[in-house]
Each structure stands twice: as structure tokens, then as C-alpha cells.
Amino acid sequence: MTAQIIDGKQISADIRAEVALDVQKMQEEHGLTPGLAVVLVGEDPASQVYVNNKEKACNEVGFNSIKYELPANTSEDDLIKLVEELNGRADIHGILVQLPLPDQIDEERVLLNIDPDKDVDGFHPMNVGRLVVGAPVFVSCTPAGVIELLKRSGAELEGANAVVVGRSNIVGKPVALLLLGENCTVTICHSRTRDLAAVCRQADVLVAAVGVPEMVKGDWVKEGATIIDVGINRTEDGLVGDVEFEAAAERARAITPVPGGVGPMTIAMLMRNTLKAADLAL
Ligand code: GUN
């Protein structure tokens, strides 16, 4: 069996095109243009690239975007003051504070101050709680992208055995909760899991999010499984995922490449969350 390669770039472009159409409709019917504020503190080069990509995507779908670039020595209080100001603005529907923040700033305190109804990153404990009780509003973008790739690649989720390798707060745990919401039987694996290979071999849906290059071996893959590889690891051989791609692709029904799988989905889901935030404000 040779797997379908799940094209995250194409699916991301499709979703952004869908969002652009909905933005047009919102403008025509309600005279409202979604607005996203992106806040960057300091000069981390990777963060600068992410923020610029987010701004570009906003412009392409027809959002208003405002970028705030604050100096690295910004105080926690000043950042929170800006967040509060943005919470109060009717033309801003989504607020994203790019992480990581400089050491003098307590990330948790900043995130707690974002209005949960503008929390398009889905990082506020209120939105995490909504996900836990099965009533998600804003789901963080990478986990939401994982589910979207599964659905759009034709994976059967109802009653499927889903195995999530990795238990981080930003990917593993929320992905597991979303899969549960899709009526999968979910197993979360981590560094202490006994016989990880045997658990993975039961998976109809396998999500790898550990950050260890090619840790999930090809012969751990069940015939016909759908594999979503969230890992992006820089090695001597270039970028590789958490899954042994070539060997896994021989057994899987469908698999995401690295790069070009989950990566491009994050921005698409941010666009969708921002549209939803504007819709909530109607
Ligand atoms: N830094 C890296 N990824 C993200 C993200 O998705 N959201 C925010 N706010 N910061 C990030």
C-alpha cells in the first residue's frame, strides 16, 4: 500500500479561500471586517517570521490586521495595559500575543488578561476548560489543524482507535480531547509508556507530537492507518518529522509530509478562529 500524501499546503490554502469568501459575506451583510491584533515583544527572529506570515495571511483573507512591535524590555504591566486596551476595542476581534515572551514577563498572567472571546490562540484557561467539557469555542491552532487534516483526508474517526504520542499542553493534550470529541477511543502515550510500539500498532489514527526525529518507526504503523506528524526536527539530513516517513508511508492509508503537512495549517486555523471571533461580536 502506498499512502495518500496529505497536502497541508493545499488544504491550508483551501481553508483561507473559504475564510476570504466568508469575510466578503460578512462585509456585505453586516458591514463588519474582522480585525486581528498581533503583539510581538522583542526581536526573536523566528517569532518575527511567524508574525509577518500571520499579517500577510490576514491581508490575503481581507482582515484588518494591526501589528504591535514592543521592545524586549517591555514590562509585564505595560503589556497587560495594551492587552486591556485591545480587549476594549470594538474593531479588534482577535488578540494574539506571540510566544515566547521575554523572561521578565509572566506568560500565564498575560494570557489570563486576554478576553476569552478574543483569544484566537485558544490559550486562555477558559478556552482550555471549554474544550475539556466538550464545548470548545476557540481551539488552539495546531491541534485544530490536526483534526482538519484528518477530516479532509477522509479518515474515519467515529469509533476509531486514536493514539497520540506526546502529552504537551499545546499539542498532545488538546489533540486527544478533540479526538475524543470526534468519538475516537483515545490513548495518550508519553516517555513512560510501556511498549509504545505495541500501542501504536493498534492505531487507526496516529498523531505524533514528541519532537524526537523519526521516533515512530515504520513497522509501528497499522496497515491502513492515517498518520499526522506534528514534529519538525532540524537534523543533518534537513527537516524531518517524528515519524519514519518512507517506511510508514508503505503501510499507512494517508500520511502528512514534513514540511508541508501540519505546519501550514496553523495560520489557516488562526484565520478561521479570527473570523469566528468577529462572528461572535455580531
Ligand atoms: N509561538 C509559536 N507558535 C505560536 C502560536 O501558535 N501562538 C502564539 N501566540 N505564539 C506562538
The helix-and-strand class reads alpha/beta
Helix content: 40-55%
Q: Give the ordered list of helices and strands.
A: EHEHEHEHHHEHEHEEEEHEH
Radius of gyration, in Å, reads 19 Å
As for the number of domains, it is 2
On the 0-100 scale, what is the average pLDDT? 98
The top level CATH class name of the largest domain? Alpha Beta
Oligomer: single chain
The profile of the biggest β sheet is:
6 strands, parallel
Quickly describe the structure.
This protein has 282 residues and is of the alpha/beta class. It has 10 helices and 11 strands.
Q: Can you describe what's shown?
A:
The chain has 282 residues and is an alpha/beta fold. The protein has two domains: 31-115, 3-Layer(aba) Sandwich (Rossmann fold), CATH 3.40.50; 140-263, NAD(P)-binding Rossmann-like Domain (Rossmann fold, 3-Layer(aba) Sandwich). Helix content is 40%, strand content 16%. It is built from ten helices and eleven strands. It has helices at 8-30, 45-61, 76-87, 107-112, 125-132, 141-152, 172-181, 196-200, 245-249, 265-280; strands at residues 4-5, 35-41, 64-70, 94-97, 161-165, 185-189, 205-208, 226-229, 233-235, 238-240, 254-255. It has a six-stranded parallel β-sheet. The protein has a three-stranded parallel β-sheet with strand order 3-2-4, with helices on both faces. Strand 2, helix 2 and strand 3 form a beta-alpha-beta unit. Helix 6 (141-152) packs across helix 10 (265-280). The chain is globular. The mean pLDDT is 98. The structure holds guanine. Guanine (GUN) is lined by residues 50, 96-99, 121, 141, 266.
